[in-house]
Specification:
Blueprint (H helix, E strand, L loop, with lengths): L1 H6 L31 H18 L5 H18 L6 H14 L1 H12 L1 H20 L1
């Protein structure tokens, strides 16, 4: 079999995997101590933080929250694409910024670093609690 692969221009060493055709959105796992990450699940967990911050926002009207959430869902869908459209995403985030600038800040922090995004949410909640107690 190895001889046949060499004739076709495919050469793979021990433990290698050769796949022909499109494997878009597929997971292929072989062998020794592989680490697998699923970008979509990571993206989903990060957006859960952003959606939670949106839900906890007391200053936005329910209709505005729905609009912001719809824009964020479009951003999430676009980011999950193999080649995200940067201008599309930038337009959506500008729309969100007009409606809820604090949510865009949380989104940027969360998408850059999930722990930083959670810290940003907690910082805002603490600030709001301090303001309410005064």
């Amino acid at each position: 079999m190895t001889e046949n692969n060499k004739k076709n221009g495919i050469s793979a060493g021990n433990g290698s995997v050769v796949v022909g055709g499109s494997v878009s959105s597929s997971t292929i796992v072989v062998g020794n101590n592989n680490t697998i990450t699923n970008q979509t699940s990571q993206l989903n967990s990060r957006f859960e933080i952003i959606y939670r911050a949106l839900d906890e926002n007391k200053t936005l009207a329910p209709a505005d929250k729905q609009d912001v959430k719809a824009e964020l869902q479009e951003v999430q869908t676009a980011l999950a694409e193999p080649k995200p459209d940067e201008t599309f995403i930038a337009r959506r985030l500008r729309n969100v910024k007009r409606m809820a600038p604090e949510i865009v800040e949380v989104a940027f922090e969360t998408l850059k670093n999930p722990i930083s995004g959670v810290a940003e949410v907690i910082k805002r909640i603490a600030k709001r609690a301090a303001e309410e107690s005064n």
